[in-house]
Fold this protein.
Amino acid sequence: MEWGMANRMAQLIQSDGHTLFLPVDHGYFQGPTRRLEEPRKTIEPLLPYADAIFITRGVLRSSVDPDNTKPVILRVSGGTSMVGKDLANEGITTSMEEAIRLNASAVGISIFVGSEYEKESLLNLSKLVDEGEKYGIPVMAVTAVGRELEKRDARYLALSSRIAAELGARVVKTYWCEDFDRVVTGCPVPVIMAGGPQVDTELEVFEFVYDGMQKGAIGVNLGRNIWQNDFPVAMIKAIRAVVHQNASPKEAQELFSSEKGGS
Ligand code: 5RP
């Protein structure tokens, strides 16, 4: 790996081999998502506990101070919305020059395997990888499912993740699922877990993060289950303990409860 690429990967993945990405990119197709209506207010208290932030250029410029931040993974795909025809019909929204100008440590793009736009999204990924490799910028592929949340099973996610790695993604972001080891085993690059819509209890989040880490994920890219929680700082601290200190779900729950009490 060239120095620039290796250096950027090291900014993203911590010395223990694990990482906690904080995604706040949801507005690029969801608009002012609940509890991300004013991005700066959501981001600022959480940033000290994140290893990197996943964000669009617009929110980065408007809502994050350049002199006090964390490594940036720039969301560079989009062009669709919740009310449009098909969420899978994304294009590349941001050039590699812009990513460099914004000092991004990586760029992120969604792929939609099995959708009508499978080929376009996979070719977008390939083009982005070609560009990223030219400048030493890693590409994170996001195995998106659009509105079809039921697609989140090991067979589908293993297929999507492997294809993303084959096309050159340096990191793959996918969903946790039952038999998650099948996804990780079949994917020759590091795998990060996204959360999806907020689940009912904090313990459920700690349990799936813990399970995924035991099965080989290197970390999380967890958004709504952190910042839609009533106690987002307590939540990110507890998840951080699972990711970086191998805390059990029970220990994470205890930490969450004590942090929540203190906040
Ligand atoms: C949105 C994304 C998000 O980064 C990803 O889904 C993670 O966020 P969450 O944990 O809220 O699902 O790619 O398009």
Notes: The chain has one domain: 3-229. The chain has a mean pLDDT of 96. The beta strands are 19-23, 52-55, 72-75, 77-78, 91-92, 106-111, 139-143, 171-175, 191-194, 219-221.
